[in-house]
Amino acid sequence: xxxxxxxxxxxxxxxxxxxxxxxxxxxxxxxxxxxxxxxxxxxxxxxxxxxxxxxxxxxxxxxxxxxxxxxxxxxxxxxxxxxxxxxxxxxxxxxxxxxxxxxxxxxxxxxxxxxxxxxxxxxxxxxxxxxxxxxxxxxxxxxxxxxxxxxxxxxxxxxxxxxxxxxxxxxxxxxxxxxxxxxxxxxxxxxxxxxxxxxxxxxxxxxxxxxxxxxxxxxxxxxxxxxxxxxxxxxxxxxxxxxxxxxxxxxxxxxxxxxxxxxxxxxxxxxxxxxxxxxxxxxxxxxxxxxxxxxxxxxxxxxxxxxxxxxxxxxxxxxxxxxxxxxxxxxxxxxxxxxxxxxxxxxxxxxxxxxxxx
Length: 358
Known about the structure:
Domain NADH:flavin oxidoreductase/NADH oxidase N-terminal: 4-331
Mean pLDDT: 95
Strand order of the largest sheet: 3-4-5-10-11-12-13-14
Strand content: 5-15%
Radius of gyration: 19 Å
Shape: globular
Pfam family, one: Oxidored_FMN
Number of domains: 1
Order of helices and strands: EEEHEHEHEEEEHEHHHEHEHEHEHH
Number of strands: 14
Low-confidence stretches: none
Largest sheet: 8 strands, parallel, barrel
Structural class: alpha/beta
Number of helices: 12
CATH topology: TIM Barrel
Protein name: Alkene reductase
Distance between the termini: 35 Å
């Protein structure tokens, strides 16, 4: 069995360990989607990860889900990311940009537009807005003619990301955002070529990947999926059939990796591992509720065939997570109240482990 601390060849880059920092929204960007010096410090503190996947960056204005999230749809936004990628690389790290289109999970107050999704079906729950949480609005159903432009927006953002110094990009196909909305049975009620059958519902994801591969290359492209997850009210009625079809299509691209959250049963995940020929990242934390993933969870999924293990919440309070895992140091727990609070408290204020003199 591989160890968390073995190296791994990921496309065009060699990872010194198999610990991945999972993408996590921290909403510390400017109101116009610019990355900040604090963000550069935050990611540089965690550069000992084998790979960092950044927080989601919106590929278009209408793709923005939450306020104060960074973008990759203007030249100014791309330029602002250079300080982040440079700081990570200066500290010896590697980083992929996650590209995240919120689809229906947004609000006009956030970007001045009516959110758009596969169908005019609102998300379940309250969404973040500049004035606080509000009920998710009814989105505008995308026309058949405009769906391809949203698929291409991932590729446009990917080009900007690579130009800004990212080593690659990850398409966010999980957690109830736009790609999973198209996969869903209840968020996608379309009767055109993007809805109905499994083959139609996976089409948007495949087209977004195809455009991104054409733009930046397969070795610089990954995708994250959460099979069966019900974030923001999405439902998927036949998870094994849906994701088997999708992963088979994606396998033909020879992507850098497939990143799966543990949001369905182990038998389904094992079947997806069997048909995925490349690097597999498993994120066990999604299946653990409020408990953050630890070394036992990593070992379990490495035995099950994962190549890399991504940690989310554990990285927030443990910038030196790799070293803590390596020598068995206790893990600190993050203050949830500061996840989306803004400012440096609970963002840059978690220290490396303090060894006590004997």
